[in-house]
Design brief:
Length: about 250
């Protein structure tokens, strides 16, 4: 018992062990700071994945990566490893695991997809953690700042560049009503939109036709706003209910 309580336990508190732990702690603190920095933008925009998610992903990636660099201190140095650990296998596991986490924040509804930026930035947060773990501190800082730039300023650049707004439309027609594609196409054109014919899908249930399609604006700032389009669509003959969403999010 004395052997366990003194000699074995003291091996976990040697000078080398404490020094390695301090380096790991500093890496984790750096990962915490950069994870919070990247996550703040998502939190500010009210996304499901916020500062805590990004900080935890970044710190977890750092922790798993950095401990691979200190195999001689594992288990207090009591176990002699026959082969050196391969950090690339650890990184591969991190990338795969975080990929599943990122997939969880992506929501797909009809032609509308949400959460792609959050998923990509969560994956990038793990990459920042890995870079900190292997010692590329300056590169990790630059990557974090570049990520913040992309998520905060590039949307303004996108708004300035020529673009076409795309609307995902779901229309449910009244029972036994026969809709005409040409009338819908004309309706959209008069309001500055072009219906993509290859995007139309039709479903019929209980005598009611349900149409799904996307409509792209013909020009920039010339199309009707979503609220105005909804008000006009409410008057369209034979429509019982409808749903409009921005197809690109």
């Amino acid at each position: 018992m004395d052997l366990i309580s003194t000699q074995n336990m003291s091996s976990y508190w040697t000078e080398g062990q404490v020094s390695a732990s301090l380096v790991i702690i500093l890496n984790l603190l750096g990962a915490l700071a950069l994870g919070l920095l990247v996550g703040y933008e998502r939190s500010y925009r009210g996304r499901a994945a916020g500062m805590r998610t990004y900080a935890l992903v970044c710190m977890g990636s750092t922790a798993l990566t950095v401990i691979v660099g200190y195999p001689s201190f594992w288990y207090g140095g009591h176990i002699v490893l026959t082969a050196n650990p391969d950090p690339t296998r650890v990184i591969q596991g991190i990338v795969t695991g975080v990929g599943f986490l990122g997939a969880g924040v992506i929501m797909h509804e009809g032609f509308s997809t949400r959460g792609l930026t959050s998923a990509a930035s969560i994956w990038l947060s793990s990459a920042i953690g890995v870079m900190i773990g292997v010692g590329f501190y300056l590169a990790a800082i630059v990557l974090a700042l570049a990520a913040v730039f992309c998520m905060t300023l590039l949307n303004r650049v996108e708004a300035w560049l020529p673009s076409r707004q795309t609307v995902a439309v779901t229309v449910v027609f009244q029972q036994l009503f026969t809709p005409h594609e040409s009338r819908l196409i004309k309706f959209a054109l008069e309001r500055g939109y072009e219906i993509a014919s290859d995007s139309i899908s039709v479903k019929c249930c209980d005598g009611k036709a349900e149409w799904h399609f996307t409509a792209a604006a013909l020009g920039r700032h010339n199309e009707a706003k979503l609220t105005a389009l909804a008000a006009e669509l409410r008057k369209f003959e034979g429509i019982e209910s409808f749903q409009l969403n921005h197809a690109r999010n």
